[in-house]
TrEMBL record:
Native source species: Parapedobacter koreensis
Top-level lineage group: Bacteria
GO molecular function: methyltransferase activity
GO biological process, one term: DNA repair
InterPro entries: ATL_DNA_repair (IPR052520), MethylDNA_cys_MeTrfase_DNA-bd (IPR014048), MethylDNA_cys_MeTrfase_DNAb (IPR036217), WH-like_DNA-bd_sf (IPR036388)
Biological classification of the source: Bacteria, Pseudomonadati, Bacteroidota, Sphingobacteriia, Sphingobacteriales
Protein name, per record: Methylated-DNA-protein-cysteine methyltransferase related protein
Amino acid sequence: MKANNETNFFEWVYEIVRQIPEGRVTSYGAIARALGTAGSSRMVGYAMRAAHRANPPIPAHRVVNRIGVLSGKMAFGSPSLMQQLLENEGVEVVDDKVVNFSAVFWDPQEVISL
């Protein structure tokens, strides 16, 4: 599904993020590719930073960078909250990086249903 205007872009991102299963993570780039906007990883990051205002809630803690680093952790108001949320779901994090990233990676292009 291609996001075709900036006004709806955040909502398209949120629809994908709401589908990430508990205990799994995806990346900003994977979300951008699933939307047909492969060069918009940074915009996905902006959407995640604004996700606290979305309703229904967005599990933004499940979105990490392309190598599994918790690059958005400061948006959670506490440097450890993102890690705590992931660990509560069984995702192991060491030194701000998801352990065994490829095993817990969820590719939205394979299962997306917008």
